[in-house]
Amino acid sequence: MNPKFCYACGGPLDNPDFKGPSENYCKYCTDEKGKLKSREEIKQGVAQWFLSWQPDLDKKTALIRAEHYIKAMPAWAE
Ligand SMILES: [Zn+2]
């Protein structure tokens, strides 16, 4: 069974806006060949995502929240 959520950011993979070339990761977390981007790149992306729906948030807080958020994702678990 395929996961329904991106292993790296939790994005919904049954949503065409998130579905990319990879089975396990959304298109925002991979390059065009389906290769997972770096944790730092994805953290920046998640921070941007937070800022897009919470315009009052400042960049620094968004990055701290993004760090906590992606820590819980299976792609980054040791
Ligand atoms: Zn993702």
Molecular structure report:
The protein has helices at residues 39-53, 59-71. By secondary structure, the protein is mainly alpha-helical. Helix 1 packs across helix 2. The protein is globular. The model has no long low-confidence stretch (mean pLDDT 93). Bound molecules: zinc ion (ZN). The site of zinc ion (ZN) has 8 residues, from loops.
Extract low-pLDDT stretches: none
How would you state the average pLDDT, rounded?
A: 93
Given the helix and strand composition, which structural class is it?
mainly alpha
Instruction: Please tally the helical runs, counting DSSP H or I stretches of 4 or more residues.
Output: 2
Strand-and-helix sequence, N→C? HH
3D shape: globular
| Helicity range | 25-40%
**DSSP, total strands:** 0
Can you tag this structure with a few keywords?
0% strand, 2 helices
Brief overview, please?
With 78 residues, the protein is an all-alpha fold. The protein has 2 helices and no strands.
Give the secondary structure arrangement, pairings included.
Layout: H1 39-53, H2 59-71
Helix pairs in contact: 1-2
The protein binds zinc ion.
Residues 6, 8-9, 11, 25-26, 28-29 line the site of zinc ion.
